[in-house]
Amino acid sequence: MTTKKPSPWSRRRVPDDMAILELDEELDLETYTPACIAIQGRGRWRRGMKVTAAGWGLTSSHPFSSPDVPHEVQLQVSECWPRPEKDLCAGGSGKSWWKGDSGGPVTFKQGDQHTLIGVISGGNPGEEGVAGKMIYYRNWLEKNLGDAVKCRM
């Protein structure tokens, strides 16, 4: 497996939780359904738009509990400050992503196609979570993704 990260990247200052993992073997696309990647278009996420987040994050804080399989949660896009051009925020109904979910996908479903619009960065139970917008990394992604499935938002 090979890893690619945006630069500048350092362990002391991690401005972006973003990486591309290139697997040594191809995946069975009958088993694993790919999401296209939102790197074209304006990427204007409407407040209230429904998105899905997935990960192996904690499901309980008392006692701490982590799932054996990834879970998903339906959330609504909300205002995101202080970096609205770079970040996507979502939450609602006391739901969010949490510890262990970082690096997981945030997708928007159009028909039968899931579109990867963000990568989970951080969040707290019951509060809105923050994700890096895929569209913000457009130039870096286009340079490094090769023939990956891309889509227009």
Features:
Thrombin, subunit H; 6-stranded antiparallel β-barrel; 153 residues; single chain; two-stranded antiparallel ribbon; mainly beta
SSE layout:
Blueprint (H helix, E strand, L loop, with lengths): L1 E3 L15 E3 L13 E5 L9 E6 L4 E2 L2 E2 L5 E8 L8 E5 L13 E6 L2 E10 L6 E5 L4 H7 L5 E3 L1
Parallel strand pairs: 3-10, 3-12
Antiparallel strand pairs: 1-2, 4-7, 4-9, 5-6, 7-8, 8-11, 9-10, 10-11
Overall description:
- With 153 residues, the chain is mainly β.
- The protein has one domain: Thrombin, subunit H (Beta Barrel), CATH 2.40.10.10.
- The protein is built from one helix and twelve strands.
- The chain has one helix at residues 138-144; strands at 2-4, 20-22, 36-40, 50-55, 60-61, 64-65, 71-78, 87-91, 105-110, 113-122, 129-133, 150-152.
- The two termini are 30 Å apart.
- 27% of the residues are buried.
- The mean pLDDT is 79.
Mean pLDDT: 79
Number of alpha- plus pi-helical segments: 1
Proportion in β-strands:
35-45%
For the termini, the CA-CA separation is: 30 Å
Spans where pLDDT lies below 50 across 5 or more residues: none
Sheet bearing the most strands, described? 6 strands, antiparallel, barrel
Helix content, binned percent: under 10%
Task: Write down the Rg.
Answer: 15 Å
Assigned CATH architecture: Beta Barrel
Strand element count:
12
CATH superfamily: Trypsin-like serine proteases
The best one-word shape is globular
> What is the CATH T-level topology?
Thrombin, subunit H
- Domain unit count: 1
Taken in chain order, the helices and strands follow as EEEEEEEEEEEHE
Main sheet: strand order: 4-7-8-11-10-9
Specify the structural class.
mainly beta
